[in-house]
């Protein structure tokens, strides 16, 4: 059975990282944007990361520009913005596509594992996926879901 550990992603410096490196650690995987109405969710995600990282939690952020061009063109600008405004210290990766024919294979896997309401496609920035320690997608959260509301489910996979 496939898991998120079967995928590789590109770091902001262009190097490839295997998600196998996170084996045994629960994760929240989220598509992000720096200029979106939901951008303040970075604060809530960072709070979850600080609270539960010592218990094994990893958060993996994937900037995407597919929804009204709400991401900076330069990934360094994205990183600076996230760190300066929200203190983001969790994993952030290179900008990717999360929907359509050019979607990153990881996000194709995620949406096939946890369908959304009416459609499996990601409809906006800050769609969040909860991954258990076995690398399986156990829950999907809408862009409108505040990260604090994930905490109850997160505790179950810690």
TrEMBL record:
Alphabetized InterPro entries for the sequence: Glutathione_peroxidase (IPR000889), GPX_AS (IPR029759), Thioredoxin-like_sf (IPR036249)
Pfam families listed in its UniProt record: GSHPx
Annotated organism of origin: Halobacillus naozhouensis
Record carries keyword Oxidoreductase: yes
Protein name: Glutathione peroxidase
Family of this protein: Belongs to the glutathione peroxidase family.
Keywords for this protein: Oxidoreductase, Peroxidase
An example Gene Ontology molecular-function term: peroxidase activity
